[in-house]
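[09:14] KT: can someone run the structure on this one? pasting the chain below
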Amino acid sequence: MAENGTDCDQRRIGMIKEQHNGNFTDSSLLSERKRRDREERLNILLWRQPLVTLQYFFLETLINLKEWTIKLWHRRSILVSFLLTLAALTATYYIEGTHQQYVRYMEKKFFWCAYWVGLGILSSVGLGTGLHTFLLYLGPHIASVTLAAYECNSVNFPEPPYPDQIICPDEETTEGSISLWAIISKVRLEACMWGAGTAIGELPPYFMARAARLSGAEPDDEEYQEFEEMLEHAETAQDFASRAKLAVQNLVQKVGFFGILACASIPNPLFDLAGITCGHFLVPFWTFFGATLIGKAVIKMHIQKLFVIVTFSKHIVEQMVSLIGAIPSIGPSLQKPFQEYLEAQRIKLHHKSDGGMPQGENWLSWMFEKLVIVMVCYFILSIINSMAQSYAKRLQQKMYSEEKTK
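[09:31] RB: done, structure tokens below
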């Protein structure tokens, strides 16, 4: 894989020599200027410079829309085919006939899968930033299904997408008849779709590094620059973080498909580095994406799912609540809301939604709802700040190019 980039390395060396022979002879001044520009960009935040941030955000949005429109125009044959397919599906959806039952079934499944794929993409999109949708959505969903399965002794409640609340079926079941495998099978679709979304969200670092390697240019991206510096100082790395990053890079580079699979199959905050490494060393797309998809959507997803199911099994939850009560002084006061929440969930599972039973609000559920709102708002703010900083980077790069032409 390293041999594939020999020509790109030679072009990069040539570009560096040209820069040293041109206007930017003093590399220390250039690096200092880039450092100041980076600090200036990082200060463009909504709570520090609201007007500038909003202005840059809207300008960056317009530029992105223009770029996407141009790309769609260059691929207008694909766009026309997509629109024709969409028109045919729309006609099939609205025309009455015996096929409507299958159309409704496919519609329900499609939107259910798209919902979880979208949450997975939100969780991993970008370089280390994202909305932690496993903790906010998928984890609680698996936990609620687990609690319901043990309480109902069945998983025969409605198929996804569920209604507002899960209701135990009317059929008689034997106590303790529910199995771990039955719960895993019940939540497999949404868990695998979420894992596939996280695999899709890992593609931007790969494409960025691959494009930079093929073009011979060095992108003004902090993650990629950190990767380049790590390669230069690989032998002298001493701290644990640098050694961990270097280990991931060596594993992916030397082992290939199975190295990527190993990195993707465990909760790994350094996996963005694996995407950059694969792009930099020109690993084929399907080797990278195939290993990432299998690792995240199948192996890692089953590990996480099993952990949540075991953690929220009936006897484990009861033991945790009893342990909370054993805490000196504050134990009983903390134990009470947990007991009330679990009892409310049990009651909810055993009455029909039209029964008119009043739903009390527990402070735990209230806090979780507010936490979700806060994290979603923070994610939106981070998107605004990131796009504003991207526009500031465009302006700085334009200044560099103008100075080079003088």
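[09:33] KT: thanks! The mean pLDDT is 76.
[09:34] RB: yep, looked fine to me
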